[in-house]
């Protein structure tokens, strides 16, 4: 992760759920991480498990402070809004979005500058949103993070 400094807010929230016997590793075991996600982000347990699995980058069944910081920076306190948006697009409830559904939502999303995406950008983001034309909730969260960080090249 590029930014290794952890905000006080993120650190305090993480430590609120950390048991003292886990302190040396600065990791939350899965059950404590799920509790943090359900209590603080107001999401249900099944969605918390999906999000935990997505952000447990090293796959060790625990969430490190750095993994939590990444989660917080990507979805922050608006996690439920992201889930609600994803579920409203996944109207057929297949558990994934098609490339066409992703393109449709991208036409309504804006960059951090407030600008709309152009057709080439929509195509690029839609093609890279998932695998084999399927965008899962985790992929969608990544897509939103990439949009947040995307800097459009200066146009000539």
Radius of gyration: 17 Å
What level of helicity do the residues show? 40-55%
| CATH architectural name of the largest domain | Orthogonal Bundle
Helix count from the secondary structure assignment: 8
Straight-line N-to-C gap: 32 Å
- What integer is the average pLDDT? 88
Question: What is the H/E string?
Answer: HEHHEHHEHHEH
The proportion of residues in beta strands is 5-15%
| Structural shape | globular
Which regions have little confidence, pLDDT < 50, spanning 5+ residues? none
Structural class: mainly alpha
CATH top-level class of the largest domain: Mainly Alpha
Q: Describe the biggest sheet?
A: 2 strands, antiparallel
Q: How many structurally independent domains? A: 2
Count of DSSP strands: 4
CATH superfamily of the largest domain: EF-hand
Q: How are the strands ordered across the major sheet? A: 1-2
Please name the CATH topology of the largest domain. Answer: Recoverin, domain 1
Please explain how this structure is put together.
The chain has 156 residues and is mostly helical. 53% of the residues lie in helices and 6% in strands. The radius of gyration is 17 Å and the shape is globular. The two termini are 32 Å apart. The model has no long low-confidence stretch (mean pLDDT 88). This is EF-hand domain-containing protein.
């Amino acid at each position: 992760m590029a930014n290794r400094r952890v905000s006080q807010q993120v650190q305090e929230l993480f430590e609120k759920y950390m048991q003292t016997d886990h302190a040396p590793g600065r990791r939350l075991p899965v059950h404590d991480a799920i509790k943090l996600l359900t209590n603080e982000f107001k999401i249900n347990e099944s969605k918390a498990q999906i999000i935990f699995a997505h952000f447990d980058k090293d796959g060790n069944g625990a969430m490190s402070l750095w993994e939590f910081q990444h989660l917080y920076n990507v979805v922050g306190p608006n996690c439920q809004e992201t889930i609600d948006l994803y579920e409203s697009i996944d109207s057929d409830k297949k558990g994934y979005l098609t490339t066409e559904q992703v393109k449709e939502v991208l036409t309504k999303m804006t960059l951090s500058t407030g600008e709309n995406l152009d057709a080439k950008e929509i195509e690029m983001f839609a093609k890279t949103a998932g695998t084999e034309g399927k965008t899962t909730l985790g992929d969608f969260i990544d897509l939103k993070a990439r949009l947040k960080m995307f800097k459009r090249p200066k146009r000539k």
